[in-house]
Amino acid sequence: MAIICDQLISTELVPLWIRSSFYGSTSMLTYIMLILFMPWISRFSYFLVIRASFAWKIISGTTMFLIGQNQPWCLMVFLLLESCFAIGAYNLFNMPLSDVAENNMQRYNRKHPISSMVFGTNALIIKPAISLSPMLVVSVLNHYGYDRIKKDNSSTGLSASELDNLKRIMFLLICFYSVTIGLIQLILWSFYTIRDRKKMAVIYVDGQEC
After folding, report:
1. Number of domains in the chain
2. What is the chain's alpha carbon radius of gyration, rounded to the nearest angstrom?
3. Angle at alpha carbon of residue 83, lines to 79 and 84, rounded to 5°
4. Counting CB atoms within 10 angstroms of each CB, which of 82, 113, 116, 149 has the fewest?
């Protein structure tokens, strides 16, 4: 995030202290958002909340693309909410993983759930993706001259047209990355079939509490 913000958001338009607060507030706002959304999760089930976060990626990425890269405050709000929704949805994924292990135990009459295998397989896929995605983004940006900026610690290594092209690529990356990932996640999430049982269980618990 810092790589893109340093290039797309000018320090003349956004003061440095606001930028620093913006970088540091992401994780805190994520947990505040989770606390605020907890009643919705209990009422509508985590399936709908996670699906809504995927739909948000598509809508927000498309909206930001239509707004354009010349609106730094809108871009900061977009990046902040995008990060909060992504981290928040990631933190909720322990719930469907637990349901997958429990459903497997019931379906195959196991004595114990295969939680270690489910969570281990998830980590085997997720952890490399988290590590490799920044490297992939930087490799794409290096193709457009970002390595020269990083080497010289300034934008003087690029011409005005090259710098504008680099900023345009950065903006397109954050918009279409959000839309593409959100679309893939939304399609794959539609195949999750345990949602009906989980939703009924949540409604039943709420009914008992009432």
Report:
1. 1
2. 21
3. 120
4. 116
Which pair of structure tokens corresponds to residue 109?
């009459």
Per-residue model confidence as pLDDT tens digits over 71-89: 888 888 898 888 888 888 8
Residue 61: Cβ within 10 Å count? 22
- Cα separation of 65 and 112, whole Å? 48
- Write out the two tokens for 47: 């399936």
Give the pair of three-digit tokens for residue 76.
Answer: 């900061």
The range of the structural domain enclosing residue 162 comes to 2-209
Burial zone of 62 (CB within 10 Å; 0-12 exposed, 13-18 middle, 19+ buried): middle
Angle at which helix 94-107 crosses helix 16-67, to 10 degrees, equals 60
Say which residue the tokens 């279409």 belong to: 176
pTM: 0.78
For residue 162, count CB atoms less than 10 angstroms from its CB and return exposed for 0-12, middle for 13-18, buried for 19 or more. Answer: middle
